[in-house]
Specification:
Blueprint (H helix, E strand, L loop, with lengths): L1 E4 L9 H10 L5 E2 L7 H15 L6 E5 L1 H13 L3 E4 L5 H4 L6 E3 L6 E3 L2 H13 L7 E6 L7 H7 L5 E4 L13 H14 L1
Parallel strand pairs: 1-2, 1-3, 3-4, 4-7, 7-8
Antiparallel strand pairs: 5-6
InterPro entries: AB_hydrolase_fold, UPF0227/Esterase_YqiA
Protein name: Putative esterase
Length: 191
């Protein structure tokens, strides 16, 4: 089973989620929940899903941006393989400038990034484990939101697919589906 974790102000029906859903349709169970903007609630939802599904299905995680941050934590906690796409490794720092009202990309609704959200993300970042051996990262150097060097300095070259150009959306991620499938197949054979 593939669990896709969307990014900040996105949804489980966003562009990348739809690409992956189409890719796995008929081949692999695929789940992409729309998570709360409240970090503790988002993580609670993910943990509940995994606790419910893991006994029945091997799970692979795919997380984009803030979803990559969550996926990394879940990977460490549950020993699950994870693919991170332009991951936000320090979202509490990144989101500090969003203290004003923010608009959801998928439905236009509005919400606020509150100080309690930033504190929760900061706490999660401090609790993140250090064994990234079950993680594969895709990062664009042209990401206009995240500095690719942070990712480059965090993960080993063997775990990192670093590409020139592009943007934060990593809109051409479908070019890497076979690489991602191979990563999950290899992880499954080891477990």
């Amino acid at each position: 089973m593939i669990l896709y974790i969307h990014g900040f102000a996105s949804s489980g029906t966003g562009y990348k989620s739809s690409l992956f859903r189409s890719h796995y349709e008929g081949r692999e169970p695929f789940l992409s929940p729309t998570l709360s903007v409240v970090p503790d609630l988002a993580m609670h939802t993910l943990r509940d899903l995994i606790d419910t599904l893991k006994p029945e299905h091997p799970i692979g995680l795919i997380g984009s941006s803030l979803g990559g941050f969550y996926a990394r934590i879940i990977s460490h906690e549950y020993g699950l393989p994870a693919v991170l796409i332009n991951p936000a490794l320090a979202p509490h720092t990144l989101l500090r400038h969003h203290a004003q009202q923010v608009r959801h990309y998928y439905d236009g609704s509005r919400f606020y990034v509150e100080e309690s959200h930033l504190q929760a993300l900061s706490h999660m970042a401090q609790q993140t484990g250090h064994d990234d051996s079950a993680i594969l990262v895709f990062q664009k150097k042209g990401d206009e939101i995240l500095n690719y060097r942070t990712v480059q300095n965090t993960f080993s070259p063997e775990q990192l697919v670093l590409e020139e150009g592009g943007d934060h959306g990593f809109s051409d991620i479908s070019r890497h589906f076979s690489h991602i499938d191979g990563f999950f197949a290899e992880a499954s054979s080891r477990s």
